[in-house]
Specification:
The protein has 20 helices and 22 strands. The chain is an alpha+beta fold and about 550 residues long. Helix 12 crosses helix 14, helix 13 packs antiparallel against helix 14 and helix 18 crosses helix 20. The chain starts with a strand and ends in a 6-residue tail after the last strand.
């Protein structure tokens, strides 16, 4: 199952145990998103229909009729009875996206598909959902009535050739005639007129200017006092999205600056902003912009950070706390075209690539802010831990990892030590038991080690592995084991008598205060320390027998 498909047992649709209201909910979810398929007759966990399962055409028609009765604003079609390779039968209900209206159940429920689950849409989100419908429809309407044959020959041939040169496009699509190819990418409608999306890619400047809100960009550079020192604008609609992207990358020279890190006899050059991160953020701004609201895309470059802001909130169902995992397309046909032209990742938002590149360069993860009118993404130029770069570079060159493992390793190496709870927050995992996909391989390959159990588990780099690599890593008290922290505390109190928690933490600045607190509490519990005073004024000392 995924965002566009769900499987249901035949018992859910036919017979005494049928729950057609639940199936109607699913249909509404698909219709309010980007459509989908409801495959009926496949049991949970199975790949094929039950071998002896038979379905009549009248049952299929009755189910579809009942689903239409239980929903409003939902367009349904069905496949008829289909037979699996084992002889078992099933059928598929196709739910088309509701482009102009909000789909509901006849009882008034509004639901939406996000990922592989359905969620109710609250009153506060209804306006946003209605706005999303308009944005979705924007791509495929053709208000200017421009015949596709009127497109400049070079512009048309360049687009077709770029599609044919892409290894992300199947031969079946590449072999289509020009009109069929343009239709496939929704650049023309059935009558041969350029859609809004077609005008964006193939139109002349004056035609792009007549779009409601075409892509317009402002690039602004600030100094240390946040005073503007350079500005460049793209407001004249001269270029297609691909040409505009490439021109911005050429002009934005400040984004190509780099720093050098000494690595033994060598120097390691690291860009302030990875080329892949810049490209993905720019394309995301194009792809997820609301083309039905006014506003420029802003690229603001400060001495320590870059901020990209585009008009329109995050797509409904996506937040800054789940953007790494959820997949939701505001302009699906534009995204398909950008992806097939190899200008973007294509699988959702591309934030997994952004997280990977930033984590592997020991840089802060992106800061994302969204409200009803705009989305801002901030990426910082500085390194959190320059020493971690050598570690990550060594692993990348010697040990193959998955993208998830690279992201997790980058965070662990940068933090030096991190609890499973803290790591789950950074990875946007709602359940810590999903952590295995991110750190399991790192543990198996002895790249990291763990300490503690369950929610008390901590992850840190495996010192034995990096000792063999001879990277010259500077020791850190942050990764000290509890018994060593205990020894330091005992040694301090032995010579200084009585001390409060804040004073102990101040004298051991490299040790995490949380770790000091845990060790002190345990020492009190086990009788290794005596206490005096109430909580706020509590002090600790060695037991008199040890003084």
């Amino acid at each position: 199952e995924g965002q566009n498909i769900e499987y249901k047992s035949l018992k859910k649709a036919v017979g005494k145990q049928a729950d057609l209201r639940s199936l109607a909910d699913t249909c509404v979810c698909f219709a309010n998103a980007q459509g989908g398929k409801l495959v009926i007759g496949i049991e949970d966990g199975a790949e094929l229909a039950p071998e002896k399962q038979k379905i009549s055409e009248s049952d299929v028609n009755d189910v579809v009729k009942r689903l239409r009765d239980l929903t409003d604003g939902v367009s349904l079609t069905h496949s008829g009875v289909q037979t699996d390779q084992n002889g078992g039968q099933f059928f598929t209900v196709v739910i088309h996206p509701s482009l102009r209206t909000i789909a509901t159940t006849t009882t008034g429920k509004v639901l939406m598909r996000i990922g592989d689950s359905c969620f109710p849409v609250g009153n506060e989100d209804l306006t946003n959902l209605a706005s999303e419908k308009t944005a979705f429809q924007w791509e495929i309407i053709a208000p200017q009535k421009i015949r596709w044959e009127k497109v400049e020959s070079k512009t048309l041939q360049d687009f077709i050739q770029a599609i044919k040169d892409s290894d992300k496009v199947s031969d079946f699509i590449k072999e289509k005639e020009p009109f069929e190819l343009l239709s496939f990418y929704q650049l023309v409608d059935e009558e041969g007129f350029l859609t809004n999306l077609g005008v964006l890619w193939l139109g002349m400047p004056q035609q792009r200017a007549r779009l409601s809100y075409p892509i317009t960009v402002q690039y602004i550079v600030y100094n240390e006092k946040e005073e503007k020192i350079r500005k460049k604008e793209w407001h004249y609609h001269l270029q297609s999205p691909k040409e505009l992207l490439e021109d911005i990358e050429r002009e934005a020279v400040e984004l190509t600056y780099s720093i050098e890190l000494t690595d033994g006899l060598y120097r390691n050059t690291i860009r302030n902003y990875s080329k892949e991160v810049v490209r993905e953020l720019l394309v995301n701004a194009f792809a997820h912009k609301k083309y039905t609201v006014s506003g420029d895309i802003f690229i603001e470059v400060y001495p320590d950070r870059m901020v990209i802001t585009n008009p329109g909130s995050l797509p409904l169902g996506i937040t800054q706390n789940n953007i790494l995992h959820e997949r939701r397309r505001r302009n699906p046909h534009l995204i398909t075209t950008l992806s097939d032209l190899k200008l973007m990742e294509g699988e959702g938002s591309g934030y997994d690539l952004i997280y990977e590149k930033l984590a592997m360069e020991a840089k802060p993860l992106p800061k994302i802010e969204s409200d009803f009118s705009k989305v801002s993404v901030t990426v910082y130029s500085g390194l959190l831990n320059p020493e971690a770069v050598s570690i990550l570079d060594y692993v990348a060159k010697n040990i193959p990892l998955t993208q998830k493992e690279y992201i997790a390793l980058g965070i662990i190496a940068t933090e030096k030590k991190i609890s499973t709870t803290q790591l789950a927050v950074k990875l946007q995992l709602l359940q810590e038991d999903k952590m295995a996909k991110w750190v399991g391989g790192l543990l198996d390959k002895n790249i990291i080690i763990s300490r503690g159990i369950k929610k008390g588990t901590e992850y840190l780099l495996n010192p034995e592995l990096f000792a063999q690599a001879k990277l010259g890593i500077t020791p850190s008290l942050k990764t000290l084991e509890p018994y060593k922290i205990k020894a330091l505390i005992l040694e301090y109190l032995k010579y200084n008598g009585v001390a409060g928690m804040a004073e102990i933490a101040e004298k051991l600045p490299e040790v995490m205060e949380e770790d000091i607190r845990k060790v002190v509490y345990k020492m009190v519990e086990e009788g290794d320390l005596d206490t005096e005073g109430a909580k706020r004024n509590r002090v600790y000392q060695l037991p008199k027998k040890n003084n």
